Amino acid sequence: MATTGSFSPWHRQAPELLHEFLLGASDTLPTRPAVIESAPDGGLHTVTYRELAARTAARTEELAGLGIGVGDRVALESDSSAAVLTLLMACSALGATFLPLSPQSPVGRRLTIVGMTGPALYLRSGGEEPAGLPASTGSGRFGPEGLVIERAPARRAHHRTGAVSTDPAYVVFTSGSTGTPKGVVMSHRGYLAFCRGMLRHDIVTAEDRVASTSPFQFDFSLLDAGLALGNGATLVPVPRGLLRWPRRFARFLREAGATQVNGVPSIWRPLLRHEPARLSELGAVRGILFSGERFPLEDLRLLRRELPGVRIVNCFGSTESIACTFADIPDPLPADQADISIGRPHAGAEILLIDGEGRPVDEPGAVGEIHLRSPALFTGYWNDPAATRAVLVADPLEPRSGQLVYRSGDLASRGADGELYFHGRADSMVKIRGNRVELGAVEHRLRAFPSVEAAAVLVVPRAGDAADPVLTAFVVPEPAAGWDPDQLREFCGKELPDYMVPDELRAIDRLPLNPNGKVDRARLLALALPGKERTV
Q: Measured between alpha carbons, how far is 532 from 525 in angstroms, rounded to an integer?
């Protein structure tokens, strides 16, 4: 790949805000492709760093003309694209906080987030304005050509005069235990601290083209942007509709010249299961980074065979710190290896393992809960101080210092060389197709259905494919009340994204309880295994 110069992310004056970091190469590598994306005619369109900076400046001026300023929030409903990148960077330049939303999310969920955050402006890349958007919230559409404002935002007083690095850069909404989405607030400082730690792993160079497969509302897409643009490399957003079609996915990667492919392990499953020979066509790919879920060892071995010599990196973490560890997958992967490491924390971060009594766990093989000490921690949960206090806790090694660490709920142990191994969640948070799902949020929605008396949700291994679990719900119908499982699924889908709608629904007379009076999930799991209760 041709180069037009060299770029180092270590600027003479270190950037303090998100847009400064992402546009760092625009002065030194102005003609290098910043984004290569799918064009409306089916081809590819290239946006250089100079063009990306110019479009960001134009969007900044347009938003400023609408009165957007420090402390405002701007909702951005879009898939990943150069156009939405320029808008989120314009928000950063103005000191506004952006809220990434997915066009595929239910309207009810998007409106709930709007109601929680009160954005000054709601911008979408297509479609109609969501019915029920508050009149005080401005709305409009955007694309490569710019903004089309349909309703100007209500004027607001601004009492702050400039952005600082501790201000919120964005709020990403994940599943919440009460059914209400939980907003993770990330500051500019936190995002940049993570990106700088990530870049120290030398995953890509300025010569690379980084294919990003994550939806925009998933913070993995912001990791991809930092990894690519923070290195002066090229970001290649993969159209979401291609991921289920292995031939089209492989063809896009090949035509875009992708050298690095990032995403959850499940993006590789269609290729590995149905079109493994297509992988040999990806000769330009020299790196893969995955996160969000376990990568089945048999699939990893197959990927290794089809793409020999490719560097594969396991990235582990949560939205509250974007990620925290990186590990290179051995090449070759030993035949007797039963588990893969999640590695060690990135530069500038430290992980403590703490047992149930609050004591540090040091011996290899012993399991403890991950407590993360890092400058890349989130600020807190949006308008939820109680939930924030539950996870941003005093440093267990020296609580008198006033330092806060992130109590993650993830269980891990250390190997003989100090590398970490993941052992699941200490609570009811699970991952479905790479998305974090709070089981309590699904249960809350099920119980809101008029004819459901009680509900419990769990993840059940899928026969023959443990990497693609089944979200299974046990529901107790109200006595003498008729209920329709299709209606219940439709009811869930009005408020929950599709990955949170149970795949299977099972009627049960009552939920089994353990001696402590809690739902006995082990007994439910036994019922959910093949050959047990009938699926309704």
A: 10
Dihedral, CA of residue 263, residue 128, residue 59 and residue 208, to nearest 10 = 20
Q: Which residues are bridge partners to 345 per DSSP? A: 325
Residues 407 and 369 placed together within one structural domain of the fold: yes
Say if residue 171 is exposed, middle or buried (CB neighbours under 10 Å; 0-12, 13-18, 19+): buried
Our CA angle for 274, 246, 250, nearest 5°, is 125
Check: CB of residue 285 under 8 Å from CB of residue 306.
Answer: no
pLDDT at 480: 66
**Domain boundary at 398, 425, 452, which?**
425
Please identify, among 396, 425, 454, the residue that sits at the C-terminal boundary of a domain: 425
Number of domains the chain contains: 2
- Is there a domain that residue 407 lies in? yes
Q: Is the pTM of this model over 0.70?
A: yes
Identify whether 22 is part of a domain.
Answer: no
432 neighbors 264 (Cβ within 8 angstroms) = no
Residue 235 lies in a domain: no
Domain that holds residue 444: 429-528
Q: Are 189 and 167 in contact (CB under 8 A)?
A: no
Q: Is residue 366 part of a domain?
A: yes
Answer yes or no: do 384 and 404 share one domain. Answer: yes
Q: What is the mean pLDDT of each run of 10 residues along the chain (536 residues)?
A: 44 82 97 97 96 98 97 97 98 98 93 97 96 96 96 94 96 80 96 98 97 95 98 97 94 98 92 91 96 88 94 97 97 89 97 94 95 98 97 97 96 95 82 82 89 89 71 87 86 92 92 71 82 45
Per-residue CA distances from 299 to 91, 251, 313, 431, 467 (Å)? 40, 21, 14, 18, 10
For the chain, first and last CA: distance in Å?
55
